[in-house]
Amino acid sequence: MQNKWRLAKAGFDYDVVAVFGSQSTGKSTLLNRLFGTRFDVMSEAQRQQTTRGIWTDRGTGGMPVLIMDVEGTDGRERGEHQDFERKSALFSLAVAEVVIVNMWENMVGLYNGANMGLLKTVMEVNLQLFSGGEPKKTLLYFVIRDHVSAAPLESLAATLTKDLARIWASLSRPPGTESATLDSYFDLKFASLPHKLLQPADFEREAMGLRRQFTDAGSSGYVFKAGYKRRVPADGFPHYASSVWEKVMSNKDLDLPTQQELLAQFRCDEIAAVALEPFREALVPVRLRVQEGKVVEDLGAVAQAARTQALEAFVAQAARYHSGVYGKKRAGLVATLDSELHAVFLNQVKNASAQAAEAFSRDAARAIEEDNGGGFMEIVEKVRCGVMARFDRAVDGLMFEGAPWSFAPEKRQLDGALDAVTVELREREVDRIVERTKRLAKDAMGDAVAEHLAAGEEDMWRLVMDAFDSEASDADERLAKQLAAAGLIGGEQRLVVERRVHAALWEDVLVGLLRDEVSDAMVLLKLRAAVEDRFRYDAQGLPRVWTPSDDIDAQFAVARESARALLPRLSRVNVESSAKLRLARTFFPAGYEYERTLVLIAPARQRDLAKRFAREADALYLEAKRSMVTTHGKVPAWVLVLLVLLGWNEAMAVLFNPLYLVLVCMVGGAALVVHLLGMWGPLLRAAGGFTGVASDQVHRLLVEAVNRTEPVKPRKSSSGKRVPKKESDTEIEYTDPRRSSISKRLVKKESDIEMEPLGKDESRNSSRSSSPRN
Ligand SMILES: Nc1nc2c(ncn2[C@@H]2O[C@H](COP(=O)(O)OP(=O)(O)OP(=O)(O)O)[C@@H](O)[C@H]2O)c(=O)[nH]1
């Protein structure tokens, strides 16, 4: 249809004509005249059958007509294959809309002649083919050859019509067609041609006139009327013809409606397959990009164009076929197109979703970071709107008219993912606010806590708790303002955050500060300050100078006991006075056990500290005793006598030497002044200190001198770090504890503090002070 006759794209605009008749009656000659074909014509000299089987050709001069030259009936050569006549008639009537019955004039009226048998066969097979459905008319065009008699064509036509009616009446018709008349199945048309050999010129002229009826659609006798068409689209003709032929040759029932449905199914599938090819090709590049995780901007447009093109190509060809089959096949094609598109679209939506979630998380975090005054929720909502708008744009392009899909579930899923990111960001924001609140609280409470604990007064916990309560109230106020400004949360959720902040203020801030204050070094410092406060200074805060009349033991016992009483007080937080903690159940988060944080110094550590304090206190006591011996020691009488005897000459020399006398008087005067002022104790201590410093200096110089001669490796700690020199390790300045807090007097950090030498226990203490806890 395509390669030889160029008719495949003709749709329904083509016609099929077949010629029947007895053998060698000039059928091929007639067809060649009418249609310009080149069917073989029997040679004049050799009378034998020329046409065997059925031959087909297209009319020349652009005629969209297929002509079938059918083997003539009564063929002697066929012999036993008599049923070929019936089969060829069945096939021709199934395919051709116009059947030319070629006969000699002298055959007209011969009812028992070969032609009548042929006509009977034609009518029978026609009934077989069309009785099932809507009757399809066929034009029977009788061409009477060698019309040489005087009988007019009308008379011949009437004779033939009568014969046909008789045959029709004699047919046993299938149920439902009993009352059907001949003309409900056939139109009859008659023409005659002069003798080809006797009247060649007339023959040619009239043959040309006949030709116009087949070529000139405008002529009144035009034979190819729309009602005769078998409605087999040109591109389906080969399949239809071969399928009919197959049925005919295998003697199977042949009904045209079924054949046409089968043809429609076959052709619609073929057309759909062809239409799908460019569609799939157009999708390949975008599908690849989508599979790489990209969002393809023009995916919707590309897909829609490819889909429309495929459908149009299908409709253009398939719509000519059986409407029921076509409808189903079209729906099938649409389903295939849409399912392939949907798979790509789903990937695109998945990519768009992932990109939206990522962009939201990143952009929102950045916008919060660069916050220029907008509230948290305002910022997040703005970013979210932008992200969702981008997602909608990517998805909207995929929703074209009649599309059976919706991406609402994917959008809901994305909404859920963005909600989760929002919650995460909000928690991070709340964490930041809580951290800020904690920092402020630490700054605010740090000094007060240190001061109250350093004073160690009976009511120190009340003061500490007052400070905590007040800070907690301030923090609540600050938090409420910050949360409101950020538009973060309110109501129940705010209460939850508040309680979380309370727990942080309590444990991370206050208890943290308190634990710093009750480290070993700090506790020992406090205890020592407490004992010194009572033992070394009098009620007016002046340093004591011990005299033999003082009861050092009693004074020391009182001072030590008062200091010892401080240790248990420091060991546990007393929250009785806190109004906030009285309502701990609603103040802290549910399940928070603040009681476990109350113990600051465990009993074992308390015992250890008590021992270490006792040793330090003993040192104070011994120092006090020594100062009294130094100040008030008595010189024995024999020493004085010995002194007079041995120093008589020197004394006389001094007395009689004016220079020495003046010097002695000055020294004596100064000593008298010191004595009268009661300054011997401090003076001796100052002298002792000076001697100590001088001895240290000498010691250092000696060590340096030795080191210069013999290099010594630097002393290292177990961790490999250089250990500072002992001489500069400790630098503690003591002043009146009633005038400033102990904490402020601590110049070096606690780990650097080293107590005074304590004889045999020194090594044990020093090893304990370098333990990890310290
Ligand atoms: N008398 C007469 N002879 C004709 C006419 N047309 C053709 N012939 C001759 O009849 C013979 C058979 O012609 P074909 O055209 O081959 O006849 P056919 O019916 O096609 O023959 P088969 O294909 O063998 O059945 C040829 O020798 C023709 O010259 C005609 O109109 N009148």
TrEMBL record:
Molecular function terms, GO-annotated: GTP binding; GTPase activity
Keywords assigned: Endoplasmic reticulum, GTP-binding, Hydrolase, Membrane, Nucleotide-binding, Transmembrane, Transmembrane helix
Residues that bind GTP: G21, S22, Q23, S24, T25, G26, K27, S28
Membrane side Lumenal: residue ranges: 656-658
Phylogenetic classification of the source organism: Eukaryota, Fungi, Fungi incertae sedis, Zoopagomycota, Kickxellomycotina
Any one biological process term the GO annotation gives: endoplasmic reticulum membrane fusion
Region Disordered, residue ranges: 710-774
InterPro entries, alphabetized: G_GB1_RHD3_dom, P-loop_NTPase, RHD3/Sey1, Sey1/RHD3-like_3HB
One Pfam family, short name: RHD3_GTPase
Compositional bias of kind Basic and acidic residues: 725-739, 748-765
GO CC terms: endoplasmic reticulum membrane
Protein name, per record: Dynamin-like GTPase that mediates homotypic ER fusion
Topology with respect to the bilayer: Multi-pass membrane protein
Iron-sulfur keyword on record: no
Basic residues bias (residue ranges): 714-724
Cell compartment(s), UniProt: Endoplasmic reticulum membrane
